[in-house]
Specification:
This protein has a domain at about 45-115. Helix content is about 65%, strand content about 0%. The chain has 5 helices and no strands. It has helices at about 5-30, 45-60, 65-80, 85-100, 100-115. The radius of gyration is 25 Å and the shape is extended.
Length: about 140
């Protein structure tokens, strides 16, 4: 019995597509799987703002900014606006910067921010009191 090459073509294409899908799926799973995060999600807008300040402090190697980050960490912890996991993430990066590992701290601050993608509100930050349009003068 001979096999017809036309019968193998659809199976070959299917195998190729399944293989390609598997190869592409692996990096996506690694990137988006929750266990692959190095840092916890932040729970407040204040923490997100503090994350930006931390990155700026590390990026510019600014001791004064780093001091403001530490003071704000204490305040947010006292106010209950930060989980212990969040605090540990911030503390880890601050400790790197304090020990002179500025470049590593900068990379980790960026990673902390990257791990927040998909977290929080879907709406952009908005001014709570946007300016009102001017009133139209009556015609006549």
């Amino acid at each position: 019995m001979t096999t017809n090459p036309d019968d193998d073509a659809p199976r070959s294409r299917l195998r190729w597509l399944v293989g390609a899908a598997a190869v592409l799926a692996v990096p996506l799973v690694v990137i988006w799987w929750p266990g692959c995060r190095q840092y916890p999600p932040v729970t407040s807008r204040e923490s997100l703002s503090l994350m930006r300040l931390l990155y700026a402090a590390c990026n510019t190697r600014d001791e004064a900014r780093l001091g403001r980050v530490e003071a704000r960490l204490e305040q947010l912890t006292r106010e209950g606006k930060m989980t212990p996991e969040e605090r540990a993430g911030f503390d880890r990066i601050v400790a790197m910067a304090r020990s002179g590992e500025w470049e590593r701290a900068e990379r980790e601050a960026f990673r902390f921010a990257e791990d927040q993608v998909g977290q929080g509100d879907s709406e952009p930050d908005r001014d709570p009191d946007p300016p009102k349009p001017p009133k139209k003068k009556p015609k006549g």
